[in-house]
Amino acid sequence: MRYIIPIFAILVITIVSILGFRGDYSKNTPIEVFPDMDRQAKFKAQTANSRFADGSADRLPVTGTVLRGTAIDSENVFSSQPKFHSDAYTTGKFPDGEWVKNVPVSAGLNMSTMRLGREKYGIHCSVCHGDYGNGLGVTAKFGLNPRNLADSSNAGSYLESAAAWTDGQFYNAISNGSASGIMLGLKDRLSPDERWAIVLYLRALQDYVGQATTASKGQGS
Ligand code: HEC
Fold this sequence. Notes:
- Helix 4 packs across helix 8 (about 190-220) and helix 7 (about 165-175) crosses helix 8.
- This protein has helices at about 5-20, 75-80, 85-90, 110-125, 125-130, 160-165, 165-175, 190-220.
- The longest helix is centred in the last third of the chain and has 29 residues, at about 190-220.
- The protein is mostly helical.
- The protein has a domain at about 90-215: Cytochrome c-like domain (Cytochrome Bc1 Complex, Chain D, domain 2, Orthogonal Bundle), CATH 1.10.760.10.
- Heme C binds near residues 124, 128, 170 and 183.
């Protein structure tokens, strides 16, 4: 009988010290009874990998295949009046080799296209080109030199030459990458509609950043 209280006390201390601190932050290595899927054999994105001939862990889609959900436009399949885009719409270039000057009207020149462009720009471009298109995305700190697409106050401004670029050329750069091949094309990840939406957003960004930086330059020195 006289052991009951000490045993009870020890039990309480043990249970509290085991269960009581669950969920607390700790710098110690956790004790893993069941490791779940915390650690698994995998290749991280954008890393080197000697297993493949091109030395990269990232793989391109198999030749002749398309991403699920992008091959068939179901509205067209079930419509009695299917709508097909012209080659100029899907390539940014007219059959005679002229670049498409402005984002085609059929891409939808409205606020929802602009929003789509902003969303897709944020996902696919800003890591490199920066939120403001000034070429200062995260990767710029790691030796990559993404083009300054908008900010004329930065070195290596691309604004003047970018203004001379037609929308078709921007569309083509998004689809097939930069001329030198340092930036890869994203046509496997972005539908033509999404690519035109990004071009539309990029134009707005150039206007906005261009005006903001010229205005602040005027006020400053
Ligand atoms: C992995 C980083 C990366 C991503 C993601 C990226 N770019 Fe680039 N981009 C670059 C680099 C680096 C250059 C400069 C390439 C060069 O000097 O050849 C470049 C160049 C460009 C150019 C100029 C092309 C040329 O031929 O001069 C345009 C336009 C452009 N990017 C737009 C975009 C848009 C729009 C997106 C998003 C859809 C995007 N980029 C996504 C890194 C990136």
